[in-house]
Design brief:
Layout: E1 3-6, E2 9-12, E3 15-18, H1 23-26, E4 37-39, H2 44-57, E5 61-65, H3 71-80, E6 84-88, H4 94-105, E7 114-117, H5 125-136, E8 141-146, H6 152-162, E9 166-175, H7 200-212, E10 217-222, E11 226-231
Parallel strand pairs: 3-4, 5-6, 5-8, 6-7, 8-9
Antiparallel strand pairs: 1-2, 2-3, 9-11, 10-11
Amino acid sequence: MLSWTGEGSFELNGTSFRTLPPVDLLEEHPMDLGEREFFVFKAVEEVESYVELVRALEPQRILELGVFGGGSTMLLAEIARPQRIVALDLTPLAEVEEKMARAVAASDLDPTTISLHGGVDQSDAATLERICASEFGGEPLDLVIDDASHQYLPTLASFNALFPRLRPGGLYVIEDWRWAHTQFDPLPIDGSDPDRVPMTRLLVEALTAFVSSPGIVAAMRVEADKAIIERGDVACDPLAFDVADHYDAAGRTLQGAGTAR
């Protein structure tokens, strides 16, 4: 169980975690974290929501896109105690990997549970396929969490590559879908950045697929911090999957180009 030790900080099996809002991060100063202390880029209620989600799903094979300092990876490993959790990031992860290895060695986690891959572009479907094959041996995934670029096109590429690899009932979580609609990362409304599309579009596509192609998407829940898309039981080829193929032509008008609103 989580043991809250202060406002925005908790311990789990001897590992310490800090949550939002960290003033030092907002001021772009490096955070002073201890050897077995990790930062989780989430508010307290979001952490608790993840604890509930993971404990209800009991995932054994987890793929995480976006690592940052490794806090969410360590948290998932501690809560789920999965067979395998693989975390990918565009940036090199040597320092994060060393710190996590030391933390794991000091805990009762299986040292083979966590596998990190740095320098991976989330839109590189071939690399995602290779990693899934080597790390999970072709077994279906239970949980995918995308907390990487927060941009539509790379997120769409990852979704098309990984969503069909989930088992029926498995969950695909898209973090921070709302950023383009907030002051944190606002989308220009004057058309000055025409190639940038809010991730809301992917949520609409998944919702339309849920309506148009029963069995591909079994259910969908949108929360303030994340969208949760449940895999249906209809088989599809992960090498040829495109969510756009699974909703009717009438729904394609939702993709119309134009000035952002």
